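Progress report, Aim 2. The chain analyzed during this reporting quarter is listed below.
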Amino acid sequence: MDEAPAPRPYRHGNLPNALRAAARAILDESGPQDVGLRESARRVGVSATAAYRHFSSKEDLLASVAAEGFRELTAAMEAAVNGPDPLIGLGLAYVEFALQKRGLFRLMFGPILVERGKYPALNEAANAAFDCVQRVASGVEGGRQEENASSMAAWGLVHGLSALFIDDLVPESRAREIAEEILQAGPRPEHRPAA
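Predicted structure tokens for the chain:
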């Protein structure tokens, strides 16, 4: 009878990043309910004790992964708003992020977000993403904008479309085309400089 090979000793330079990567793989496979410090540690090849040196709980690990996701989403949206129509660019970047990173997207907007105030890095990263949506949707360049109807409508639209696509309620093969049609038909903010 063959014995299962023992996990290889951890030899990477950054255990928190390796644990986050393992957690993200689990998210993609089966969702946040199956992510845990022990399973992430096992996949990396370290003891659970080693994982607990960096994350105090499963929720702490998930909050760190969600913060990483919000930073990636913000970067994707910021890169997309430099085109001819910033609002469409932002919307398509949001939808494409959701389609490419379904498990991460579900985590970011799941129950952990409700308690993001407990996790300063998550709170900061989520606020940066929301600020980007508000800035582009409101049409005001520079500075943090107060929530307004146009920014909430834009966020609701792209988030709702993303949810429909990742839950397979609308064919993924047409996701970009449908999203672009809807975004082009929507209202446009009048871009104006900050006061």
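The longest strand covers residues 140-141. Residues 58-188 form a domain with the Tetracycline Repressor; domain 2 fold (CATH 1.10.357.10). These observations will guide the mutagenesis work planned for the next reporting period.
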